[in-house]
Amino acid sequence: MFRTKEDEDDENVDDDENNSGVGLWLGWLSGGKRLRGTNKVIMREAEELGGVPRSDRYSSRDWFHNTITLLNSAILRDIMSPVLVVTSWGTFLAILHEKLLRKSAEAASHMYFPAAPHSLTMSALGLLLVFRTNSAYQRFAEGRKIWETIINNARDLYRMCMLYENEIGIDKRRRIQRLLAAFPYLLRHRIRPNLVMRRLDDEEYERDPENTILLYQDNGPRDTDPEAAIVAKNEEELGQSRRKTRPLYWVDKRTLPWRLLPGEALEYCAKAQNRPLWVCDRMARELRDVPDGPKFSARERLALIAITNKLSACIGGAERIHQTVVPLNYARHTLRALTIWLFSFPFAVVKDLRLFTGPVLFVMSWLLFGVYEIGYAIEDPFQGSLRLSILCDTIRRDVLADERLRATAFDLEEKVEELDELVEREGEIVDEIETMTNQTDVNGTDVNGEDLKEIMEAIETITTGAASENSTQPYQ
C-alpha cells in the first residue's frame, strides 16, 4: 500500500490520540470504523449522496453513533407529528392521573384499563405491520432487479452491435448506442415525473428558446387516479374521450438525456406519450433494416430485437410497481388499528408507569409508526430509495462513454484471418505435392522423397513465421 505525507500526518495524530486513549475511542464511536492495517476511516456516506450517516454495512459496532444521531433520522422527521401527538396524550393522562391520586384514589382507579386486551391484540398488530413491511421490501427488491435487467440487456445489446458492426454499419450502430444510452433516463423520468422539467408558465426559471424544447409530462396514470377512471368510463359507456388540458413543460436539450438523442429523434421522442417505449421501437426499427450478409442473417437480427423486447418488458415492470399502490383498505386498516392501540395504551400502563407514561409512549410510538413509515417509504422504490441517477449513469458509461476502450476488445487483427487462409493454402499445396510424387516432372525425372522434404520444410518455415508474427502483434 502506497504511503503519502497525509498518511504519515494522520499516523502522527493517531499516536497522540493513542497516548490518551479517550480521543481515539470517542472518534471511533462517532466518526466511523477503521480499516485494519490502515489509517483510513470509512465515513458512512458522502454529502453528494444525501449526507445520511451510515456505516459500511450498518455494523452493530456503530450502535453509539446511530443512537446519538436519532434526532437526525429521516424516519423520525416524517413521523414527528403523530409521535408528538401520542406522546402529548400520554403525558396529559399521566399528569391527570397524578392529580386525581392526590384528591381521590377511587377517582383515579376509573382511569385504569386491563392490560390483557393490548397483550392479545399486539400479535395481530405486529402481523399487520410485518406483512406491510415485507410486501414493501419485496417491491423494493423487485425494482432493483428490474434495473439490473436493464443494465444487463443494455450491455448485451451494445456487445451484439459491436460484434456485427461491419454488417450494421458504423452510423447505424452509433444511433442505436445513443438511443440505448438515453433509454434509462427516459424511463426514470416516466416513473418519477417532473424530475427536471419546468412549467412553461413558471416565471422563476428563464427559458432560452434556442436551446430548449417543449413537451408534455410523461407519466403513466396510477390505478387510483380518479381522472383516468372517469375518462375510461366515459369512453366505454358514452364513447366520449375528453381529457383535461395538460400543462406544457420545457427542458434544456443540452442536458441528459436529450443531448443523447440523435438528429430528428429528439423532436419525435419529445412528442411521444411513452418516451422509453418510443426509444425501444426506434431501436427495433433500426435493427430491422440491417441487410442480410454472410455473417448476419435473420437469426442475429431476431436476437438483437429480442434484447429490445426485454428492455420494453422492463418498462412494464417498472410501471407496475410505480402505478400500483398497496391496497388502500389494508393501509387504512393498519393505520387505524395502530392509532387506536397507541391512544388506548396509556390507560393500561399509567397505574404502574405514572409520570413515565409519556416517555415510554414516545418510544413505542416512534418504534411502531417508524415500521409503518418504512413500509410506506420503500413501497415505491423509484421515488428515492433507489439511486436511479447512479444506475442511469452506469448504463450511459458502459454503452457510450467508454466506447473507445471497450471497442479494443472487438478489434482483432486482420492477420489472424490471413493466417487461416495461409494454413488452408498449405493443405492444398501438400495435396498437390503428394499427387506429384506419382508423376514425373517436365524433365522426365521423378520427384524423390528428399525434394518433397525440402519443399515441406520451406512451407512450414513460412507458416510458422507468420503465426509467430501474429501472436506478438498487440490489439489495436
Please give a structural write-up.
The chain has 476 residues and is mainly α. The protein is 66% helix and 3% strand. Residues 1-20, 22-44, 50-57, 440-445 and 466-476 have low confidence and may be disordered. Strands 3-5-4 form a three-stranded antiparallel sheet. It has a two-stranded antiparallel sheet with strand order 1-2. It has helices spanning 5-20, 22-31, 63-68, 74-78, 80-103, 105-109, 116-163, 165-168, 170-191, 226-237, 265-271, 275-288, 298-323, 328-353, 357-378, 388-401, 403-407, 414-436, 449-472; strands at 33-34, 41-42, 198-199, 212-216, 248-252. It folds into four domains: 5-72, no CATH class; 76-111 and 327-378, no CATH class; 131-325 and 384-407, no CATH class; 414-472. A hairpin with a 6-residue loop joins strand 1 (33-34) and strand 2 (41-42). The chain starts with a helix and ends with a helix. It is a multi-pass membrane protein. Keywords: Cell membrane, Ion transport, Membrane, Transmembrane, Transmembrane helix, Transport. It holds the Pfam family Bestrophin_2.
Helicity level: 55-70%
Low-confidence stretches: 1-20, 22-44, 50-57, 440-445, 466-476
Number of domains: 4
Q: Distance N terminus to C terminus?
A: 32 Å
Structural class: mainly alpha
On the 0 to 100 scale, the average pLDDT is: 79
What radius of gyration results from the CA coordinates? 36 Å
Order of helices and strands: HHEEHHHHHHHEEHEHHHHHHHHH
Strand content: under 5%
Major sheet: order of its strands? 3-5-4
Task: Tell me the number of strands.
Answer: 5
How many distinct helices? 19
Shape: elongated
Membrane topology: Multi-pass membrane protein
Organism: Fistulifera solaris
InterPro entries: YneE/VCCN1/2-like (IPR044669)
Keywords: Cell membrane, Ion transport, Membrane, Transmembrane, Transmembrane helix, Transport
